[in-house]
Amino acid sequence: MTPLFRRFASDESGATAIEYALVASIVSVAIVASMTNLGSATINLYDFLIDNLVDPGGGD
Question: How would DSSP label each residue in 35-59?
Answer without folding.
Answer: HHHHHHHHHHHHHHHHHH---TT--
